[in-house]
Design goal:
The protein has helices spanning about 5-45, 55-70, 75-85, 95-105, 115-130, 135-155, 160-170, 180-195, 225-260, 265-280, 315-325, 335-350, 355-370, 375-385, 390-405, 425-440. The protein is mainly α and about 450 residues long. It is globular.
C-alpha cells in the first residue's frame, strides 16, 4: 500500500472512531429533547390556558437570542454555510439554546417541528468536538455533515434517510458522496442511541391495497391510472411545498419591514395564533400535530384513515406554522410539512378516489421533498417509515413534487449551480433540478 493511500485509510478510520462517540452523544441529547418535547406538549394539553402566554413566550425567545444567541439564530442555515465555506464556526451554545427555545415554543402552543432542533444539536456538538480535536477543514466539513445525519436519524428514527439527507441537502448541483459512509455511521449510531434510551417514535401504517383488475393488468405489473393520479397529486404537493417555503420567508420579511421594534414581532405572531385558534374553535393546528389533544382531533396519524383530515387542514397548518416560524419562534419545519402533506394527501384521496393511507404517506414525504429539495432522502424515508411495498410510488411522488416545487426551499443557504443563460428558462430549471441525479 502506497504511503498516500495508507494516510487516507488512517484518516478515515480515525474519523470514524471520532464520529461514533460524537453521534452517541448527539443521540443522547436528542433523546432528552424528544422526552422533554412530549412532556411539554402533554402538559399544555392538560393546561390549555398556556396558549394565552404564547406572545410572552415569544418575547422571552427573542431576548434569549439577542442576549446569548448571537449567530445561533441562523440555525440550520449557519451549519450549511459552515460546510460550504468555513467562517466563524458553529457556536457551542447553539445546542442548549435551540433545545430550550423549541421546548418553550411547544409548551405554549407554537406550531413548529423538531428536525431543526435535532440538526442544530448535531451540528453544534460535532463542531465542538471538531475544534477540540483540531480537525483540518476537509475533516471538519465531514464531521458537520455527520452531525446533521446523526441528529436527523435520531429524531425521526430514520438513520439511512438521515445520512442521505445530510449529503443531499447542501446544494442543488451535487451530492456529497464522499461523506456518505461517515454520515451513514452517524445516522445509525444516533438512532440506536435513542432506541437504547427507550425513546420511541410514532408508527404509521398504510392499509393493504386490494388488488383489482385494471387496463392491461395481465401484462403490466403496476396500475397506470393509479400512477397518473399519484403524479397529479404530487404536482399539488410540490406546489404546496413552494407555498410553504415562500410563506415562511415572506412573513418574516414583512414583519421585519413593518415592525422596527423587533420584540413586538413575536407578540403579534402569538396573538395571531391565539386569534386563529379562537376563530376555528379547536387546537388541532398547534404544536407538532402528532398526538391528539382530544378524541377526533386531526393529527398526522389520523390522516392515514378515511375521514381523518378536513379539506383545508393542510392550509391551516401552513398558516399556523408560517406565522409561528416567521415571527421568531423556534423548532423545525419538517414535522409541520409531514402534517401538511399527510392531511393534503388525505383530502386528495377523496377527490381522486384513491386509498387514503397511501396518499397520506406519499404526501407526508413528497411535500417534505419539495420544500427541502431532497427527493432521494425522502424516497428512502418512505421505505423506512412505511415499508418497501410502495417504493415506486414513493419515488414518483417525491421526484414529481421536487420538480414542481421551484428553487426556493426552506433552507436559504442551499446552493444553486449557475447555468448558461443562453438556454431557455425551462431547460435551465430542469438542468439544475436533475443534474445531480443524472450525472455519471
Amino acid at each position: 500500500m502506497k504511503k498516500n493511500q495508507f494516510q487516507q485509510v488512517y484518516r478515515f478510520i480515525r474519523l470514524i472512531l471520532l464520529i461514533i462517540p460524537i453521534s452517541a452523544i448527539i443521540g443522547s441529547i436528542v433523546a432528552l429533547f424528544l422526552w422533554l418535547l412530549t412532556l411539554s406538549i402533554h402538559f399544555r394539553f392538560a393546561h390549555p390556558w398556556l396558549l394565552y402566554l404564547l406572545p410572552l413566550a415569544g418575547v422571552l425567545i427573542h431576548f434569549i437570542y439577542k442576549s446569548v444567541g448571537q449567530s445561533s439564530e441562523k440555525g440550520n442555515n449557519l451549519i450549511i454555510d459552515e460546510i460550504h465555506k468555513p467562517g466563524a464556526g458553529v457556536p457551542k451554545r447553539m445546542a442548549p439554546i435551540i433545545l430550550v427555545t423549541t421546548i418553550i415554543t411547544h409548551l405554549f402552543g407554537g406550531s413548529a417541528g423538531r428536525e431543526g432542533t435535532a440538526v442544530q444539536i448535531g451540528g453544534s456538538i460535532a463542531a465542538m468536538f471538531g475544534k477540540w480535536f483540531k480537525l483540518d477543514p476537509p475533516s471538519m466539513r465531514t464531521i458537520l455533515i455527520t452531525g446533521i445525519a446523526a441528529g436527523f436519524g435520531a429524531v425521526f428514527g430514520t438513520p439511512l434517510t438521515g445520512a442521505i439527507f445530510a449529503v443531499e441537502v447542501l446544494t442543488l448541483s451535487k451530492i456529497e458522496y464522499r461523506a456518505f459512509l461517515p454520515a451513514l455511521v452517524a445516522g445509525f449510531v444516533g438512532d440506536w442511541t435513542v432506541s437504547a434510551l427507550k425513546v420511541h417514535h410514532t408508527a404509521y401504517h398504510i392499509d393493504v391495497i386490494a388488488k383489482a383488475p385494471y387496463f392491461l393488468s395481465a401484462y403490466i405489473p403496476v396500475d397506470g391510472l393509479l400512477i397518473l393520479k399519484i403524479i397529479l397529486a404530487s404536482i399539488v404537493f410540490g406546489s404546496v411545498s413552494y407555498l410553504f417555503a415562500v410563506s415562511v420567508h415572506q412573513i418574516k420579511n414583512i414583519f421585519l419591514k413593518v415592525f422596527k421594534t423587533t420584540w413586538l414581532i413575536p407578540i403579534i405572531g402569538g396573538l395571531i395564533i391565539i386569534a386563529l385558534t379562537y376563530i376555528l374553535g379547536k387546537p388541532d393546528y398547534l404544536s407538532l400535530g402528532v398526538d391528539a389533544e382530544y378524541p377526533g382531533a386531526v393529527t398526522m396519524p389520523s390522516a392515514f384513515n378515511v375521514g381523518g383530515a378536513q379539506t383545508w387542514s393542510w392550509l391551516w397548518k401552513t398558516i399556523y406554522t408560517a406565522t409561528t416560524l416567521g415571527t421568531g419562534f423556534k423548532g423545525g419545519e419538517v414535522t409541520p410539512l409531514f402534517y401538511i402533506g399527510a392531511t393534503l394527501g388525505n383530502s386528495l384521496s377523496v377527490l381522486l378516489n384513491t386509498p387514503a393511507s397511501l396518499f397520506a404517506a406519499i404526501g407526508f414525504i413528497a411535500v417534505f421533498a419539495g420544500a427541502t429539495n431532497t427527493p432521494l432522502a425522502c424516497t428512502f424515508m418512505g421505505v423506512e417509515l412505511f415499508g418497501s411495498d410502495y417504493v415506486i410510488f414513493f419515488a414518483i411522488g417525491c421526484f414529481t413534487a421536487y420538480l414542481f416545487s421551484g428553487h426556493i426551499g426552506i433552507y436559504s443557504s442551499q446552493r444553486i449551480m449557475s447555468v448558461d443563460k443562453s438556454i431557455s428558462k425551462l431547460k435551465r430549471y430542469l438542468y439544475v433540478k436533475l443534474y445531480r441525479y443524472t450525472r455519471y
